[in-house]
What we know:
Blueprint: H1 2-26, H2 37-49, H3 52-56, E1 60-65, E2 69-74, E3 79-84, E4 87-92, E5 100-103, E6 106-107, H4 110-132, E7 142-148, E8 155-161, E9 171-176, E10 182-188, E11 197-200, E12 205-206, E13 212-213, E14 216-219, E15 222-225, E16 230-232
Antiparallel strand pairs: 1-2, 1-16, 2-3, 3-4, 4-5, 5-6, 7-8, 8-9, 9-10, 10-11, 12-13, 14-15
Amino acid sequence: MKTVLRVLLIIVVIIIAGVGVLYFTLNKPLPQGERGQAADALAEKMLGAVNKVAWDSTNVIKWTFKGVHNYVWDKEHNLVEITWDDKRVLLNLNDWEKGIAYEGEVEYTGDKRGELLSTAYAYFCNDSFWLIAPFKIKEEGVILQFVVASEGEGESLLVSYTSGGVTPGDSYQWFTDENGLPTHYRMWVSIIPIGGVEATWENWEAKSTGVKLPNLHQLGPVALDMGEPQTGNSLTDIGMSESLFVAIK
């Protein structure tokens, strides 16, 4: 028994040491930049590259995150349908009391309803960020800093969120191509213990309303597929019924 315990202790020590080495090897400190004209100019260049004007006039959008969470978002009226597994949630982002939650054919009330609404909202905040984060870089409560990155990386924009969503306090360092189109960012976020983890923003495509959206992200070995998002000015433009959100308006 003592031999077994000794072996287990050695294994635990090795694992802890390995985690420590991994942390100090991969962890990057949050960069420091300068606020002001240069940061604002780079932000405007990014917004122009993804056509923020077209995004503002896009009323509805449909997409899938990793083939697991499916969304129909009536952006004009702040309503969203989220489906996953056998769950279906209709959220009125302006009035949670109007939300509806189903599991299979069963409509939930009480605590179970509240749990599903909260889960769906958390999914929406995360998954929509992976789709539309560039459009959120000048929202209220955001701090922008212009950063001259290390040699070979060029300029970048550090975007820090002081409020909003479900994880305020997160920061993202955006890198772009020569036209301002995002190519990747580094993250300092509460749900990832290592700072500066990098994710790509790939396969940008101009949609029917003119807005540009990504179809893919690569986060280390993990591919985050956005399911070829569709946009429109009405629900019928994306193949949905205009009555989809009647119950929660």
